[in-house]
Design goal:
41% helix, two-stranded antiparallel ribbon, alpha+beta, single chain, OB fold (Dihydrolipoamide Acetyltransferase, E2P), 7-stranded mixed sheet, 6 helices, globular
Length: 201
Amino acid sequence: MRSLLSVNIYFAILCGVISLALLLVFTFILKHKWGIIASVFILTFSLGILRFHVVDVGAPKVFESQVGQKVSLAGVIIDEPSTGANNQKLTVEVEDAGAKTKMLLSTSLDENYKYGDKINFEGVFKKPENFLTDQGKIFDYINYLRKDGVLYVMSFPKVTVVSEGSGNFIKSTLFSAKEKFLEKMNLAIQSPESLLMGGLI
């Protein structure tokens, strides 16, 4: 609901506090099953609104002013690169003038980028746009990326890797273990079965 409508943050907090109080009353004093269920439902509903309010951050002005321009930026790849048929997509966290934002870069398959790589890149700074699918429906690509905090895109920029290992150590270890496991699995299982297994993993 919060993604579609603007809900007052203080109203959500009030509902959460009241539902928590009711939950305690129904659990320890009245011992009413349906009252407990209703209280839990309202409490989780309020927490969902609060969570969305916290993560739904507006676009920083310093980046908004650069939309449509060719820019040079630096950032860190903060997620595992997603490889498609014609390109790979990199989720990059960029910082400029004290403001941070996330971008999705579409790059060629020639280079082997990894989570935690610090990169410099140059290209046209854009906002994502909704598009028409093969089924004739409009895909809400803007909100699809927005749920992950990605507000901008760049197609096939010129990318230079500055350094490696700037990401979280635990996350890097998990991605590395996954990559080695997939390499061994590809030796044991032939395509296309190996591709299906890789997608599941």
